[in-house]
Amino acid sequence: MSRAPLLTFTDRGIYCPPGDFHIDPWAPVPRALVTHGHSDHARPGMGAYLTTDGALPVIRHRLGEISAEGIAYGTPRAIGPVTVSFHPAGHVPGSAQIRVEYKGEVWVVSGDYKTEADGLCEPFAPVPCDTFITECTFGLPLFRWAPQAEVIAAIAAWWQANADAGRVSIIGAYGLGKAQRILAALPPLGPLYAHGAVEAPSAILRAQGYPVPATLPARRGEVPAGALVVAPPSALGSPWAGGLGPSPAEAFASGWMALRGIRRRRGLSTGFVMSDHADWPGLNAAIAVTGASRVFVTHGYTGPFRRWLEAQGYDAGIVATQFAGEAAEGEG
Question: Which stretches of the chain are DSSP H helices?
């Protein structure tokens, strides 16, 4: 008789029947294990939360009064007959893959991840398993990232050119993770300013010891020519952005900038291809190193990526989620 799956896929999210817990659920459940603090993974209304020590402060900030506990990377925790542990995902500070073991069988839920170390968050750590549940936000061969050093050099050159022309530079970047990654990596070419939606998580991460530089608040009439302002993507093209100086230069840092159609739709002349998710080579390398024979894909180009994995000899399936398709307008 075949054994029931260790993890099942429900209308509330990924569920572990023997442990009676969910992973990154999107509807209220009694017990949630959460991979990181982005809003499509850490949702309100859970009875209790378990996440990493690094992710917990941002999650508390976002969700308010919750019953939540942090755990160190690699520390085993028994939940009924099941043993779980959290391992670095390299996505944003504190992000984790969740390892679930029961009766010698091991599943790993990746959450979101990237395989290139960024100098800010804990680097991705492969976790051997029998079954791997992987995101595939950028699961097409056209998505291939340049090394971070090259992208940061291009952003710095754009900033310097704008400064030489007496303009303020505004770069749109997701408020938790991407924004702090850019701030931490850029050379000190001039004053750094931040939108409030960027500074709030930056201050939390700074207090935790992550190397996020201090920034000044970006207010109308207070941002000098030559400064760089880091803001959420939604602020680009807004009256707020227009009020930061005469003809401010705007750009967007995202993996979605690899698609010219999205850049045109946003009306941007400048885009930098930079993502906190794994690219095509990164996804394939991460899956291979787990040693898993069965792979489920979620969040992204699930159909094409599943077919690719099947052609490579994997037993592959798809995990449906409420949030597939949202990343193109925000996180990326």
Answer: 56-63, 148-164, 178-185, 196-207, 239-242, 260-265, 280-290, 302-311
Task: Categorize the per-residue pLDDT at 18 as very low, low, confident or very high, splitting at 50, 70 and 90.
Answer: very high
Q: How far apart are CA 25 and CA 21, in angstroms?
A: 9
Quickly count: other Cβ atoms within 10 Å of residue 71's Cβ: 19
Calculate the CA 210 to chain-centre distance. 16
Q: Is the pTM of this model over 0.90?
A: yes
Q: Encode 311-325: b = buried (16+ Cβ within 10 Å), e = exposed.
A: eeebebbebebebbe
Long-range contacts, stretch 114-118, CB < 8 angstroms, 24+ apart: 114/89, 114/90, 114/275, 114/276, 114/277, 114/278, 114/282, 115/90, 115/278, 115/282, 115/285, 115/286, 116/90, 116/145, 116/147, 116/148, 116/282, 117/90, 118/90, 118/148, 118/181, 118/185, 118/276
At 26-62, the pLDDT tens digits run 999 999 999 999 999 999 999 999 999 999 999 999 9
DSSP string, 187-216: ---S-EEE-HHHHHHHHHHHHTT--PPP-E
Res. 173: pLDDT tops 70:
yes
Q: Which of 104-108, 206-210, 220-224 shows the lowest mean pLDDT across its residues?
A: 220-224
CA distance 136 to 308: 12
Average pLDDT over residues 65-76: 98
- Residue of 71, 68, 70 lying closest to 47 (CA atoms): 68
Strand partners, 252: 172, 271
Cα R_g (the chain), whole angstroms? 20
232, HSE (Cβ side, Cα atoms, 13 Å):
14
- 96-102 and 82-88 strand pairing: antiparallel
